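Researcher: Go.
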Amino acid sequence: MFEVSVSHKPSLFTTSVTIDDSCFTSDDIKDAFLEIAENNSIEDYELIDRNDIQIDYFDLPDFLSPNNLEEFFEYYPNSSYDDMDIWEAAYNCDVEFRNIDEAYSGQFNSDEEFAQDLCEQLGDIPRNFPGYIHIDWESTAKEIMYDYCESNGYYFRSM
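Model: Structure:
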């Protein structure tokens, strides 16, 4: 899913390790590194001190860090949403990873478009609403956004 660069300075051995829901902790990554070292016949790989193994999380999306990988991989595999942009937007809106499926409300071009869609979905606008009556979607959106957050066009209900 994501690549990290793992190196052992004394031996000058460096390789990439894929982190995913089965390999994301520092210990998991170091174990994978040692297995790769063994499979590549690195001399004296068994003498590699785990404390000398360095992990560079260069390929992680900006919203992920070693501190929140466990939480991410706890919820991401079972989520309805696999688009990393949604996850990043949720992070920017302070939505906990465990709440993304429930909080995510869709992607829209503007608060006004979101407000109109929400009102239509909730049935707040009757189907036979006369075309000559106009709704101030800007003001409506302003009121609705007290309960929602937007990042990069992705909308989330505040939890």
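Model: The mean pLDDT is 90.
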